[in-house]
Amino acid sequence: MKKKFMKIISVILSLSLVFSIGCTGAFATDSVADYLPETEEVAGEITDAGISAVQTVGGLFAGMEDISSFDTFLNNVMKVLYNVLNVVVEALVKTICVVYPDPASWKDLADHSTDTFLEGRDEYKTSADADNYWSLGYASRSLIPEDFEADKYYLGRDLMNKKAQGVYDDMRIRVAVLDDNSGDGAVVIAAIDALGVTSTDTRSIRAGVLEYCAENNIKVSSINVMSTHAHSALDTQGVSTEFFYKLFASSIKNLLGYTGELPFLEAATNFKSYFVDQSIIAVNEAFEDMESGSLYYDSIDASEYIKDKRGLVSKEDLPEFASLRFIPDSGSEETYVVDVTCHPTSFSASNGLVGSDYIYYADEYIKAQEGANMVMIQGAVGQISRDIDVDTTGMDEYEEKGANAKYLGEKFGELIITAEYETELEPIINVHHTELLITPENSILALACEVNLVNNQVYYTEDGVGIISEIGYLEFGNKVGFALFPGELYPETFWGHEIIGDTTWDGSTWEYPGLGTSVEGVDVYAISLANDALGYVLTDDNFAFMGHIIGDGIADEVLSVGKHTGSYFVSTYLELIEDYVK
User: What is the mean pLDDT of each run of 10 residues along the chain (582 residues)?
Assistant: First the structure.
């Protein structure tokens, strides 16, 4: 009864909001076109997403249920209302984007430089040469500024402008550099404890690493910067830093053509430079740590400790973790590289302390138990989160804050070091990347770029504006591969729509297969937030924009490039595989 009452209230509020926004006159007919242009080459390696528009008027009534009860009738009414609301809000924001002045830092597409984009290796190899061998280097550095103090830096959780009040554990970058010593170049896997790292900062880190490699005659084929998606780390993107101030001040800044930083945000600006500089140092240190050894692989079932908060993915369908274990010939410390799938949100939204959640405690546990290193990256995480019940009896308030993170981290750490690792990998690395030019379908992302909430480089194109990003594929030993996506993937986008029982918002069908077997004979896993942070990536049929407010199992698609992002990313990845894996 309570749920039904809340739905009725939602309908009333929706009607009020729809009519109040509709009175602005911003809802133009040409803002609701429904098309997806064919992918086309734009400049060199760049391919155009061709994503534009929300849905047609006919689409407002898509996905209606057969009316068999009051609940289904109410669900249909609510869905139509929110579909209308989606179109109106998109039209309104799009109008604001037209009126709002563009930053002077935006460039023409012809000015795009590929100097910090690495295509990877040209040839896909299926066997190792006789003199190939594994080598790995590890490094880790704290990203907490030396001048850290309360109320100076921002936590990167949401738009709440929350200032950090202290440090609970740590915020780090962890790096593994791997090479098969074939002469084709090493591969960098760098994981930063952050909600996300933009392509702009990723390429700044690459620039510093490439300079070091050139000076030291080191060949590198792929430099990847991932985010652990920790929700209690400092803000690395700018999304959590004085939204309303930026909204007002950036309009003046853009009108004046000023490209410097806004006043009173010096600490936030300095932190971005600091974490980029420290990341470069960490990667360079990992190169200096390289030594030979053997590489092993295993998959890990962590379903006992995780769940899909939407209740759509069952325990048996939750993605397993991929874990690599490097054992040096010298007998020195081992290194684990683990692709987990679980939101690092153990700390409450009201938490004001900096930390990296369970990642920190998994790292500490593995060090304490085995003296080993760990690099943890994030899989197709969507709404997958912890499923634990921690007894906090006897804990003081401070200890209780981190109780969930500590428990979960130690459980993950235990699973990682007790896995069997019976599969030894041949020294073979395959890696390839494709650049993308993405035209935002969701104007909220365009507005975020105009307001300088995020520092993604925006380019003027023939069709409007676009953002440069990339997709990649990384494989070890012809046994285990990783699909590198620039957004936060939902599990069904990667593992296949059937794991959510073909649930759909608009009544259409997701046509793409699961990607876990996209390369024959290889176990392929997803990596989210790889080399960019572009928001949620869902199956197209479950994109509801603002429908998450009323839809069971629907998330914040407001924080997304748009409805067709999932199909574009998946189709581009499959094209990459088809071209590269011969």
Answer: 40 35 28 28 40 45 72 76 78 89 94 96 96 98 95 83 92 98 98 96 98 98 97 91 90 93 89 97 98 98 95 94 98 98 92 95 98 98 95 94 97 98 98 93 86 90 91 98 96 94 85 96 98 92 67 59 92 97 85
How many domains does the structure of the chain reveal? 2
* pTM (two decimals): 0.89
DSSP reduced 3-state for 298 = strand
Dist. CA 531–CA 120, nearest whole Å:
14
Residue 252: what are its φ and ψ, rounded to 5°? -70, -45
Residue 460 sits in the same domain as residue 403: no
C-beta of residue 492 within 8 angstroms of C-beta of residue 499: yes
Is 164 a domain residue?
A: yes
- What is the span of the domain harbouring residue 266? 134-419
What is the sign, positive or negative, of the torsion defined by CA atoms of 270, 273, 274, 275?
Answer: positive
Phi and psi at 424, nearest 5°, equal -85, 135
10 Å CB burial of residue 260 (0-12, 13-18, 19+) is exposed
Q: Which residues of 129-156 are buried (b: 16+ CB within 10 A; e: fewer)?
A: eeebbbbbbbbbbebbbeeeeeeebbbb
In three-state secondary structure terms, 560 is: strand
